[in-house]
Write a structure and sequence with these properties.
The protein is an alpha/beta fold and 344 residues long. It folds into two domains: 5-134, translation initiation factor eif-2b, domain 1 (Four Helix Bundle (Hemerythrin (Met), subunit A)), CATH 1.20.120.420; 137-343, Rossmann fold. Helices cover 41% and strands 18% of the residues. The chain is built from eleven helices and 16 strands. β4, α6 (167-176) and β5 (180-186) form a beta-alpha-beta unit. It is globular and about 70 Å long.
Length: 344
């Protein structure tokens, strides 16, 4: 399997996640507009991967700027295009701000040098993400018992990051360290990231797994078939409230009712210290067709209304621990996350 996304010969190469698991198609993107569209239409998804894509996309746009134009204004225009792609993922805005800082600290240098520095920073974001994921996985693996039946929701693996994964990275680390694990994978309606992507990754890794529909989780917990839950995150508020794929909130409630640990695995770049609670997290509303259709085939009578929030917010009171590259933190999250920020 090639990387989810990479920079090659001044082009952005990414796997088309919409085609998985049936076809492994890699797209070659030549303009920042193409990269922005790929983020919007979920060709690439997952908060860390979106951040990398935005960094690469801005670098691609800057690469095509010319000395004879107002390239400073155009740079900010490019950034605005990416800001409008996916509103919930914190990593998107984190990556944009990071590229902005590089541009602003070097904007008086020759344009050629600016281009080099932005490409260098974008590649650094990708490299760092892979290392961060490995550290998250190492930290999280310590929470996994010698025998564990793990439920995961959506996809927080290699496809959602620069490499290795967050929640799935923890699962991989446990498996590679000889722990006897079995993974239950929520199908994750309506986009089926669990069925299409997580099962695909686990199969490639040789990790035992079972696909379930989203509404089976509670019953399986009651029957003792699930012993912990691990998910990723798209944005975490200062108090630990966590936005993740729609359906996560329900799982957290079920886990608490059944006395099952509920873990969130995410990099520090996913934590939004500018907001106090999950009430301030913007929730993306996607096209209702994703609910009303599967593979462009209608599954409801014509004229049926639908809701399609892409994410929900799990209150921190339901979260057993948050796993980051700097360590594992527990309640009270307002204090523990702040301390983590100070030492990072």
């Amino acid at each position: 399997m090639l990387p989810t996304i990479k920079w090659e010969n001044n082009k952005v190469i990414m796997i088309d996640q919409r085609k998985l698991p049936f076809k492994e198609i890699y797209l070659e993107l030549n303009s920042y507009h193409e990269v922005a569209e790929a983020i919007s239409n979920m060709t690439i998804r997952g908060a860390p991967a979106i951040g990398i894509a935005a960094a690469f996309g801005i670098a691609l746009g800057v690469l095509k700027l010319n000395d004879g134009e107002n390239y400073i204004e155009k740079f900010y225009d490019i950034c605005e295009v990416f800001k409008k792609t996916r509103p919930t993922a914190k990593n998107l805005f984190w990556a944009i701000d990071r590229i902005k800082r590089v541009f602003e600290s070097n904007k008086n240098l020759p344009l050629k040098v600016i281009k080099e520095k932005i490409i260098e920073e974008a590649l650094l974001i990708e490299k760092e993400d892979i290392e961060i994921n490995k550290k998250i996985s190492e930290n999280g693996e310590r929470l996994i018992k010698k025998e564990e039946k793990i439920l995961t929701h959506c996809n927080a693996g290699e496809l959602a990051t620069g490499g290795f994964g967050t929640a799935i990275g923890v699962i991989k680390s446990a498996f590679y360290n000889g722990k006897k694990i079995k993974v239950y994978v929520d199908e994750t309606r309506p986009f089926l990231q669990g069925a299409r992507l997580t099962c695909w990754e686990l199969k490639k890794a040789g990790i035992p797994h079972v696909l379930i529909t989203d509404n089976m989780a509670g019953w399986l917990m009651k029957k003792g078939k699930i012993t912990c839950v691990i998910v990723g995150a798209d944005r975490i508020a200062s108090n630990g409230d966590t936005a993740n794929k729609i359906g996560t909130y329900s799982l957290a409630i079920l886990a608490k009712e059944h006395g099952i640990p509920f873990y969130v695995a995410a990099p520090l770049s996913t934590i939004d210290f500018s907001i106090g609670t999950g009430e301030e997290i913007p929730i993306e509303e996607r096209n209702k067709k994703e609910v009303l259709e599967i593979n462009s085939i209608s599954i409801a009578p014509e004229g049926t209304e639908a809701e399609n929030p892409a994410f929900d917010v799990t209150p921190s009171s339901f979260i057993t621990a948050i796993i980051t590259e700097k360590g594992v933190v527990r309640k009270p999250y307002l204090k523990s996350l702040k301390k983590l920020k100070e030492v990072s």
